[in-house]
Design goal:
Elements: H1 3-26, H2 34-50, E1 74-76, E2 86-87, H3 90-104, E3 110-117, E4 120-127, E5 130-136, E6 142-144, H4 147-150, E7 167-175, H5 178-190, H6 199-207, H7 212-217, E8 221-231, H8 238-247, E9 257-260, H9 262-275, E10 283-290, H10 293-299, E11 309-313, E12 317-330, E13 336-347, E14 350-356, H11 360-366, E15 373-378, E16 385-389, H12 403-406, E17 418-425, E18 428-435, H13 441-452, H14 464-472, H15 487-491, H16 506-519, H17 524-530, H18 538-547, H19 551-555, H20 558-575, H21 588-610, H22 622-633, H23 635-647, E19 665-669, H24 677-686, E20 690-692, E21 701-704, H25 710-718, E22 721-723, H26 725-733
Parallel strand pairs: 2-11, 19-20, 19-21, 21-22
Antiparallel strand pairs: 1-6, 3-9, 3-10, 4-5, 4-7, 7-8, 10-11, 12-13, 12-15, 13-14, 15-16, 17-18
Length: about 725
Amino acid sequence: MTPAEARQRIVELRAEVARHDELYHRKAQPEISDFDYDQLKRGLAELEARFPEFTSADSPTQRVGDDRVQGFKEVAHRQRMLSLDNTYNETELRAWHARLVRLLETDDLRFTVEPKIDGLAVSLTYESGKLVRAVTRGRGDVGDDITVNAVTIQSLPRELRGAAPRVVEIRGEIYMAQAEFDRLNAERAAAGEELYANPRNTAAGTIKSLDTAEVARRKLEVVLYGLGYCEPEAVRTQTRLQQQLRAWGLPVVEKYWTVRGIDEVWSAIGELDQIRRGFAYGTDGAVVKLDDIAQQREAGMTDKSPRWAIAYKYKPDTARTRLKAITIQVGKTGILSPVAELEPVFLSLSTISRATLHNEDEIRRKDIRVGDLVEIERAGEVIPAVLRSFPEERLAGAKEFDLFQAVGGKCPVCGEKIARVAVDTESGLGAAWKCQNYDCRAQRAGRLGFFCSRRALAIDGLGETVAAKLVELDLVRDPPDLYDVSLETLATLNLGTVEEQRVFGEKNATKLVAAREAARALPLEKWLYALSVPDVGETTARELGRRHRSFAEVADSKLLRAVLRKAELEEEKERESPGSKKNPPKDDADRERRKARRSEIEAELATLNGGILAGMPSELGPAVAASTLEFFAGVPGKRLLAKLQKLGIDPQGTVMAAGAFTGKTFVLTGTLPTMKREEAEQKILAAGGKVSGSVSKKTSYVLAGAEAGSKLEKAQALGVAVIGETEFLKLLGR
């Protein structure tokens, strides 16, 4: 790999990891398993190690994932909350131990081995024994104050038993028990709503809810195991901390091991794996920590992780069963996805009868055939995945799967023709079969369900079942048609059959109507994303919303036309270059003509780049520009715009007049006098700027408030401009 190729791949991986960080930490809606995420991040770290010239403090490998969301006050941790490095194999675990031995110059090391709880990290502050604050990890130095929600947890004591330090930060995890998770999903299934994916994501989303009554109703739990700031010092070992937490009356891990040496560590990890499924909380690994706190301090930490602790991740649970059939589902974009129909098998506390097969190419790569014995894995998703088949145990006559033949070359829902198209996959560009009918019933239902999902307009109460029924009854053709469905119609909607009716009900209908009305006020970027405009994801929608004031402006975007013009000019410049080897000049006259044309092209490009395209992000490239303009110029796009206009829905972009911060990068630190950090970040983004989590020579300004920390010191050392809120607002006004 050349340095140029490495740089491009590093940029791509950082963007991909950052996207998954956002989904996991802030939205509690991860799209990939922990293992796949860790492999992605590890690949990035290895590339950065091979090409250190591209190392950046802003890289996801150098910082803690940020779980802060809007609506909560930010609070600084007295002692930073870090994340753990992790490993999936014994060799790496022993290498970590060897590094500690060299660092501490002794192999006589004692450790604790504890369950790694699959929850949301929290820090509880007790002053003189009384609970005063609960804060999420946030970005490590500051987190969200979730005290009002945390105190609804019945198992969390408001006061410590016995003698307590003057101030102590106690760290742990907030989680949801499997029984409570099952209860919530049973409620949602009865209401025809989309089921929650897993207890961890549900707990994380719940504790960040602004509806405290709903948080209390969901019965979250907490388990404590770690120590942050403590004055005066209370314990000297991790083992003693476990004992002290129990003495204070706090909920703690059911079992932990205190061992000496790496062999005993490995043995304890194996013992934990045998019993962890019986714990009240989900566990996905074991945490190994130096027992002696003085040695912990000596070992130290990086900006992201302690050197004295590591998480050993267990492999996801798997099971073997028989593949009975492969059925085809059609999604909101028209892509045909194969689904494995299985002989029911018990896995991860659930009976599994279906699993995803991803796509036809994946089926062929894994050589999976109907009738095969297959291994399935459940790694945090509602529908598990088929890992592999066992050809050596294959039944005679089993044939390779051919999707086109299986559906007769037609969409199994609407009967229209299907075509092979290029699609983005986790591993890069791939191909899939797609229904060509935009008005296919399955696509309509998929778009409606997505329109109402939490990632889009958050119209709670409308899941897959309700969406499918509304489309089936021709009550909704395009998502905005939902606004024309009356409360009475929704309340009497039968989600079952004629024989076994299951009515949506007035309570659910009232809730849905209130949510859809609230969505009217959401910004343009949310509506662009919610309407499933081709090639417009969350990031792209945000960038479009920052640069356009309305749907009408997007539909006839001068900016997007400029993007296309720039691409045309660059292509022409390359094709008609006087020195082109692929397309050399015919003669001297042609060469001179090309030179003159190149000057014209460069002048036009300079005008575009210095004007309308100044500060244009990579997300708004020619492919996005072409598909967006084409969509709104076509029948479906025009139909959507007409319906929105009829409904009086005109979402506004977050464009600010001057674009005062175009090309500028800000770092925020400390507490501002009148603005929350998220508010300042939104103002920066809306004015064309960028927000970074760390200070470098490329930083334009550090916006500092009260109790600013190390970032302020680094800015001063690098000579980066430091401003306060007043000066920030003055710059914004310009």
